[in-house]
Amino acid sequence: MTCGEPRKSSCRPHRLIWRKAFSGAQKAQAAKPAANHPSSIPSAARVLPTDYPDKELISPFPVPLLIIGSKYDVFQDFDSDKKKLIAQMLRFVAHSYAASLIFTSIKSVSLMSKTKTYFSHLAFDLDRVKTVSTDLTKPLIIPAGSDSFSQIGSPCTTDVDITSLHAKNPKDLWKKIWERVFPQESIREQQDLKDPAKDPQYKEPQIDAMRAQKDQELEQYKRNAAKTWQGMHLET
């Protein structure tokens, strides 16, 4: 998630739509007769320690999950109130799914190293980063199980009257506050993007330039091939 660009759809923590798909698949598998899948993998909730914070209030993701807040170099220059709200929101989402949370930036060798260490921990069960940081003056580094709703606190915002939002539950409350404080530049949840490579959200000038060049070469090849086939047809 791009924590340095809160108004873009890439930083909408509540849009964990892919979780619904994963959860739906898991429910479908669980609905089958036990004999058909005797070795099915148990859900993450079954392996949480008994003393896991807020265990009865969270919905653990089926597999270990790491949420990464990118562009920390941009985020650190934000207004302190907005930084606190973004940090609170990401902490709330991470804790709700028993996930780890880390802020990083490609401009920081140290942060990238810690992020890679987390990847190694999740992929190969190696030792994870033991550091815990909830200080807003520093990048957030919060391993799963190191946070709690009481530590996260209520949404820190004076711009929104929480009572006027009529939220159905805590997740809905955070979602509505986020959209009120950070109006999204584009909401494309229902839009089916035909070519993800052209998504402006993931622009990479050098790669895009190479892609455009290859596209031109491909079109030229198609035209030349068409002319060749036409010539062969006329000869026969």
Automatic annotation (TrEMBL):
Localization per Swiss-Prot or TrEMBL: Cell projection, Cilium; Cytoplasm, Cytoskeleton
Keywords: Cell projection, Cilium, Cilium biogenesis/degradation, Cytoplasm, Cytoskeleton, Developmental protein, Dynein, Microtubule, Motor protein
Single Gene Ontology BP annotation: intraciliary retrograde transport
Keyword Cytoplasm included in the entry's annotation: yes
GO cellular component entries: axoneme; ciliary basal body; cytoplasmic dynein complex; microtubule
InterPro entries xref list: DYNC2LI1
GO molecular function terms noted in the UniProt entry: dynein heavy chain binding
Main location group: other
Annotated TM spans: none
This protein's record includes keyword Cytoplasm: yes
Family: Belongs to the dynein light intermediate chain family.
Protein name per Swiss-Prot or TrEMBL: Dynein light intermediate chain
Gene source species: Takifugu bimaculatus
